[in-house]
Amino acid sequence: MLDVCLLGTGGMMPLPGRWLTSLLLKSNGRMILIDCGEGTQIPLRMAEWGFKAIDAILFTHYHADHIAGLPGLLLSIGNSGREEPLTLMGPPGIQKIVEGLTVISPVLPYDLRLIELSDIESAETCISNIQIKSIPVDHTLPCLSYCIELRRRNKFDVERAKKLNIPVNYWNSLQKGLTITLENKTLSPEMVLGEVRKGIKVCYCTDTRPTEDLVEFIKDSDLFICEGMYGDEDNLCKAVQKKHMLFSEAGLLAKQGRAKELWLTHYSPSLTRPEDYIESARTIFTNTIVGRDLLTKTIKYID
Q: What is the DSSP code string of 157-192?
């Protein structure tokens, strides 16, 4: 299963009652954080998931509201007792950004592993058995959207294994996709594996205009977390100019991508009551939720 916590929902600046947009994900006790604006440490502490098990921090882009909280967080992770390397990844320029920010946190009890992701094409990597995909989006500077996936092995067919007289001690290796060579025969995974089982897919998208690539990227996601900088349709020109989205545009993306659920986030500071505009998204995509700070969900596998 995958635990998801929307730490904050604000864009541009933290406000009383609204922290900056950031997402925390947890699977098997290990965690990934997406974006780290000013003050992110506070909702992190309020979530009570801890700091030590954060294995990677992903950055969508390098505007201050998505990265300025990094130095303090790195120090807090160090104070938690972490000694294993921590992975930081984001669009081109991450080394320069991290070097600048860590001037005020120069001594850490763990190493930083920097991964620069392409802002031209999609990329994929794996952290703590969690698949991480990224795709370039349309903002005022290089920006990425992320897809977090927990993939499942094909279902093991016990009856078939028994009929083939395959010893039980080989079952686990075969389910993991390993081929077993014995003296008189070879056992392959295809002999005992059944249909592909659906995993878990969560997509996170802020600071962009809608794009056709995003529709395919988020397809069939269990949860799509998307910016809704503006709720009022009259703000379309502003959204286009500043490379952001309306609630209705987020709803259309969710519908076109066949997402199961949509959480809106990254609200403009002027959008004091996002719930007043929720129908502009729900008329397009019914299962739309007004994101709020510390909104949490556990997504389980479907057998």
A: -HHHHHHTT--GGGHHHHHTT--EE-SS-EE-GGGT
